[in-house]
Model the fold of this input.
Amino acid sequence: MSDQARVRAYQAERPVAVVGLVGPDGTAWWTVRDIAARTGTAVHTVQARRVRGALPFPDGRGGYRGRQLLWDPQRIEAWIARRTPQPGEVTAAELAVRLGVSANHIYRLTARRRLPAPTRRGRTACWAAAQVEAIVVAAEAKRACWTEAQAAEVVGLSRERMRQLRAQGTGPAASIRQSTARRERLWYRPADVRAWARARRAAP
Done:
């Protein structure tokens, strides 16, 4: 198949206008092609969503021998609204740009519960603007701090020794604590670590 034939076939699979059907009683109905045109996707994408159960169940059948599935346009519009990020919500891709990381990294952090639980819009994770600001502030605070490994390297100790001092209550005070199911992660302010190292060297 030539490139032009592929383009024509793709355009045929991706309708650009909602046509719809009108029943004998004047009721408007949408077909799969209408839903594809409304959502800006290909017909086979809508069919796949229907097979997965992601599309609302058809409201009726029409066409030749009732082979054409029909939907109420209002139900489809409500379904689209539930899947579309609302004003003031930030998607995972937008949050990734704010934090300077990849969208996959955001999804990994969400799966590990290191981020607030998002609102799901279809397959898209969304956060409220207030949640995003708190996430950004926390990320900036972490960037300004040292991890336990970095603090240990600066003061010339091993990471294991830092953990021992922390367990004994004689280590530097952590400014940020983040607990997970597996471990507790700590961040230290550089000034606090340097002051603790000076006090430790000056101690008899």
